[in-house]
Amino acid sequence: MPVPEDFALQETEAADLGQGEFLVAMRVGSVDPAIRGFLDDRPSYVEPVAIGAPIKGMSLGEVIVSNHADYPVGTLVRAFATWSDHYVLSGDAWGLEKVHRQADTELHHYMGALGPVGLTAWVGLFAVGEAKPGETVVVSAAAGATGSTVGQIAKARGCRVIGLVGSAEKAAVIRDLGFDAAIDYRATPDIAAEIARAAPEGVDVYFDNVGGEVLEAVLPLMRLHGRVAVCGMVGQYNDADHPHGVRTLWQLVVNRIRMQGFITYDYPEVLSQAQAELDAWVAQGKLKPLANVRDGFEKLPEAFIDLMSGRTIGKTLVRI
């Protein structure tokens, strides 16, 4: 588990801008479970964070100095950057997008349900999971940033949605968001039996944020040709050297289940459609952004520690 002593706040000289680069002032820092994986010295989809180096993560910021004609001063951008209050980007930065803020929408939502969180939920549910109207969707960590979004957009598309959470408080939150069923896995000795009661005809799509024992419980409940979209396995991030051995993988063969991990930006061809639908669902009241927000750059470690402890509800964000 991360603790405050793992982090330090340091000041460094600002880098000089090269041709085609621009200086960004962080406005909203994204606090994500995936960051925990970047802090282990093991292969991942990004290079591990070296000891003493700034943490990597998604950030939303404002261009304040620019040597790039396409990103003039005042442009709002999202990108995979560092936990630095100012950072330099180029036009080919990973995940770089311009943010077109609506006047009546708070900026931090563009790092949540109207940003990477919403896009991840959409890609996993529809591009990977291929969820269709009338199907039953189960999502773990359902009161979290991605899970709460998955459930709402699945309902918007006409799916039946079952959410798995870790407390009675979180169960109440997702019921208020319109989930058809909420299961507190900490309050039941047999999570598989509870899911089976809520989905007597089986599960078409499982959106997995947790892995481990929850994944093991869900697989035997999948319907023929079911799909599992693997977004994360937060249940293992703090002890990746001792992962839970899933004993029900044979079900992939029995029911010809397709199980696939994904990264949002592997699907650039669908992101404009995803963004348009997310914007529309928020405007229609079908998607209610769920966020817990702190203020101050120095709050990033505290927010991350709370996230990894399971204490947070919705998208964890820090405004600068």
From TrEMBL:
Residues 2-318 form the Enoyl reductase (ER) domain. GO terms for molecular function: oxidoreductase activity, acting on the CH-CH group of donors, NAD or NADP as acceptor. Pfam families: ADH_N_2 (PF16884), ADH_zinc_N (PF00107). InterPro entries: ADH-like_C (IPR013149), ADH_N_2 (IPR041694), ER (IPR020843), GroES-like_sf (IPR011032), MDR_fam (IPR045010), NAD(P)-bd_dom_sf (IPR036291). CDD domains: PGDH. The keyword Ribonucleoprotein does not apply. Keywords: Oxidoreductase. PANTHER family: PROSTAGLANDIN REDUCTASE, PROSTAGLANDIN REDUCTASE 1. This is Alcohol dehydrogenase.
